[in-house]
Amino acid sequence: MRLLHTSDWHLGRSFHRVGLLEAQAAFLDHLVATVREHRVDAVLVAGDVYDRAVPPLAAVELFDDALHRLAEAGVPTVMISGNHDSARRLGVGAGLIGRAGIHLRTDPAGVGTPVVLTDAHGDVAVYGLPYLEPALVRERFGAAQAGHEAVLAAAMDRVRADLAGRPPGTRSVVLAHAFVAGGEPSDSERDITVGGVAAVPAGIFDGVDYVALGHLHGSQTLTERVRYSGSPLAYSFSEWRHRKTMWLVDLGPDGRIAAAGRIDCPVPRTLARIRGPLDQLLTDPALDHHEDSWVEATLTDAVRPAEPMARLTKRFPHTLSLVFDPDRTDDDARPSYAERLRGRTDQQIAEDFVTHVRGGAAPDPHERAALHDALTDVRTDMAAREREVAR
């Protein structure tokens, strides 16, 4: 059986205030085309369909269109809710939608009830484990502890119990939305730490043939049968090295992975992280190929340059993030700010503060005069208030 594994669509999300709805629509076009071109038998969507619990209308319309197109393709789709989704909202109408071959698994109570698919070699039981918030499902599952590992273990016990009652040779697939140990996170995933522990061991999924994971945004293979598809688009600059893909997995007659390959997703615009003094970034010919990229620039100038964003966007018009990280040497070591306050006048403290935050550049005569005038105004105002109180 040929499976197409994807996750973390985050419909409705933007990238540093740049809307991604067109890029997300292009991905869904690509998804449907891949289903047809590669004769996919089932689509697996491992959570975070939306970016937030109450998504914008345009994102809902995009999702609705995708469901209709997948249903028209006649290919079963199994989809779970992630930690960004509202499980209740995503699951509305699941029973009716299931008749069209789109199986929404958002209720934790249904983790042990699979979608049963069939091919020439027999049945494949597909279990959907939506994101399980430990505090909400612990009692329902009878978990000994309120942690991700405990509730996922309890959910997998239900999966294995159901599978044990099925005909011998029944193959099994699990969809789950979780942080599994060994996975590499990025800056764009929402923290799901509970009690200081977020990761669960991959061994928690023992006993099934393929585990389609969602939550982490980089495509990863934890074991031959446990994989993250990653998000189809980059949602932070920490993902600039990611190759955004979906997994195309052939599940053999015996439940082994006969083949697994990555299908590249459309890239709306490449990401680039550049670093150095501003003048160097504006002139270095080695950066020519980043001029059409979304750019995060880290400036290392000792003194913050004037109008850095305006100057950067002349060469890199799609600069979205500007970071200041002045280069320091051992010779730059200075006493702490608190130490420098001792025995200083208000004027000296203000000037020292400006020097401190500007990486060593002292105020010029005009700035000193402005600081003096501001301090004088404050003293005059305070004195007037004291006289008012004394009356």
UniProtKB/TrEMBL annotation:
<dbReference type="Pfam" id="PF00149">
    <property type="entry name" value="Metallophos"/>
</dbReference>
<feature type="domain" description="Nuclease SbcCD subunit D C-terminal">
    <location>
        <begin position="268"/>
        <end position="356"/>
    </location>
</feature>
<feature type="domain" description="Calcineurin-like phosphoesterase">
    <location>
        <begin position="1"/>
        <end position="218"/>
    </location>
</feature>
<keyword id="KW-0255">Endonuclease</keyword>
<comment type="function">
    <text>SbcCD cleaves DNA hairpin structures. These structures can inhibit DNA replication and are intermediates in certain DNA recombination reactions. The complex acts as a 3'-&gt;5' double strand exonuclease that can open hairpins. It also has a 5' single-strand endonuclease activity.</text>
</comment>
<keyword id="KW-0269">Exonuclease</keyword>
<keyword id="KW-0233">DNA recombination</keyword>
<keyword id="KW-0540">Nuclease</keyword>
<dbReference type="InterPro" id="IPR004593">
    <property type="entry name" value="SbcD"/>
</dbReference>
<comment type="similarity">
    <text>Belongs to the SbcD family.</text>
</comment>
<dbReference type="InterPro" id="IPR026843">
    <property type="entry name" value="SbcD_C"/>
</dbReference>
<comment type="subunit">
    <text>Heterodimer of SbcC and SbcD.</text>
</comment>
<dbReference type="InterPro" id="IPR050535">
    <property type="entry name" value="DNA_Repair-Maintenance_Comp"/>
</dbReference>
<keyword id="KW-0235">DNA replication</keyword>
<dbReference type="Pfam" id="PF12320">
    <property type="entry name" value="SbcD_C"/>
</dbReference>
<dbReference type="InterPro" id="IPR029052">
    <property type="entry name" value="Metallo-depent_PP-like"/>
</dbReference>
<dbReference type="GO" id="GO:0004527">
    <property type="term" value="F:exonuclease activity"/>
</dbReference>
<keyword id="KW-0378">Hydrolase</keyword>
<dbReference type="InterPro" id="IPR004843">
    <property type="entry name" value="Calcineurin-like_PHP"/>
</dbReference>
<dbReference type="InterPro" id="IPR041796">
    <property type="entry name" value="Mre11_N"/>
</dbReference>
<protein>
    <recommendedName>
        <fullName>Nuclease SbcCD subunit D</fullName>
    </recommendedName>
</protein>
